[in-house]
Amino acid sequence: MFLNFHLLRDVLIATVGLPARGKSWLSARVVTYINWLGGKAKVFNAGKYRRKILDARESGRSEFFGSKNAKKRDEIAKTVLNEGIKWLHHHVAVFDATNTTPRRRKIIKEAVAKCSIDLNLIFLESICTKKEILRENLLMKVRNSPDFKNIPEKEALSDLKKRIAKYEKVYKEVDDSENTSYIKLQDMTKVTCKGIHGSIALQIANLLMSCHSGHRPIVLLRAAEAKTESIEDLRAEAFKTLRGFEDDDEASTLGSLGPYAEVNSTGSLGPYAEDDDNGSTSNSNARQSASLPKRRGSLSLLPRNSFRMPVTSATSFAKVTSSGKIFISKLKEIAESADWGKSPAVFSSTLPRAIETSQAFDSVKSWSQQWSALNVLDTGLCHGMSVEEIKKKLPDDYKMWKKNPFRYRFPGGESYMDLCHRLSPLVLELERIRRPVVVALYAYFKAIPIDLAPTVKLEQHTVIILTPNQYGWKERKRNLDNYDIKEQKWKPHCT
């Protein structure tokens, strides 16, 4: 589902819950997902601000969370809340704090009511009643939170439990009497929603219904190295095809947005039209398209998908090289020796080299799926071209790509935003699965800013293992080209 965030109502999420209930973890998930969809989201964490203005060795101890310091904690919460609201000319802000009392939640609602912009306020409450989950949450918090740095684990656990006991005395769950919108998660298995309206809010609810607290590794890797045949002849033919439209009257009806803009029969722009300076999408260019130039740079203006690009197939069906086959062989040995717990879920694209690589996990009774959504970015005419080639042959397109590499759509191909949106269903599926996962989706899991995702480079024949922690994922890498399997044993569940 494509979301034009500039036209949607901004969302403020305020977390609710006792310490060590996964509020920060959920906040990070929401922000990562919204950013992945092309929006802008940010966490405003009360604890982080507290440690910034007060020494964590004092403010992180249980004594600070008693009634004596209630006023000071309220001031911290109000400051962080106001920062989040001020930031909300963007799309989603998450106010990450306990907010355990109706009084504190009333303060938040009053602040939103005074705000000059129209905000959609949603309380996100996390409740944990299962002892085994709570035990894991407590351990994760004392091992990762700066509040307990350099403190023995036993002592830190004792102090955290005292802090929780102070909150439990005043804690009241969000309920219908507060007349507010909320999403309530109980033990990460039951989700209750009230008053959730709007596209962004519904996307967030959809994500939260897919999340779980299971501890499983995510294994990321590229397909094995493949042979790439020369595509110069194919690209030359593609250029010839493009130039064949130079004198076609059809080109003059498409405006100045290039071959990646979608135009329907009424002249209105498609969902990927650029925003104007006011943040709204204009279709005035399309209405006046007849009077606009019919060429941009050296290319005619062509409707997306109006012709078939033969270029991409040149590398799509390339065969795996000898070094690639060695990589697959090593991967198979590693998969067989690994302690998976449950059989891993292996996701690959539909490209032959990706399928062949995924077959390394067949011997461990993997749960394999092929998703066309994982196919490489279709760069159309620019497929296989170096940056210098694009700069030389398509100077105007190069400038547009440099200006906005995320939203720029390649001639006859797609943009990174297109790619992210076709991957969105897979992202939710990966969040839902509780078994180990093998997939290639590095930018999402590492929460890399989406505008930087196109610049991320993953080394060939390298296996990346991600294991969950409080704020995201812990990463380990191994290049298998120089990896001696006989001397070392790969254990995905190692922390």
CA-based shape: globular
Measured between the Cα atoms of the first and last residue, the distance is: 36 Å
Helix content: 25-40%
Total count of strands: 14
Give a short account of the largest sheet. 6 strands, mixed
Question: Widest sheet: strand order?
Answer: 2-3-1-4-5-6
Radius of gyration, in Å, reads 26 Å
Mean pLDDT: 78
Residue fraction in strands: 5-15%
**Low-confidence runs (pLDDT<50, min 5 residues)?**
230-235, 237-311
Q: State the helix count.
A: 17
Query: Helix/strand-derived class?
Result: alpha/beta
What does this structure look like?
The structure is a single chain. The protein contains 17 helices and 14 strands. The chain has helices spanning 23-36, 46-53, 56-59, 70-87, 102-114, 131-144, 153-168, 199-208, 232-243, 284-287, 313-316, 322-337, 352-358, 387-393, 395-403, 416-432, 442-445; strands at 10-16, 41-45, 92-96, 119-127, 181-186, 190-194, 218-220, 295-296, 299-300, 345-348, 367-370, 437-439, 462-469, 472-479. The protein has a six-stranded mixed β-sheet with strand order 2-3-1-4-5-6, with helices on both faces. A six-stranded mixed β-sheet has the order 11-10-12-7-13-14. The protein starts with 9 loop residues before the first strand and ends in a 16-residue tail after the last strand.
What would a concise description of this structure say?
With 495 residues, this protein is α/β, with parallel strands linked by helices. The chain has 17 helices and 14 strands.
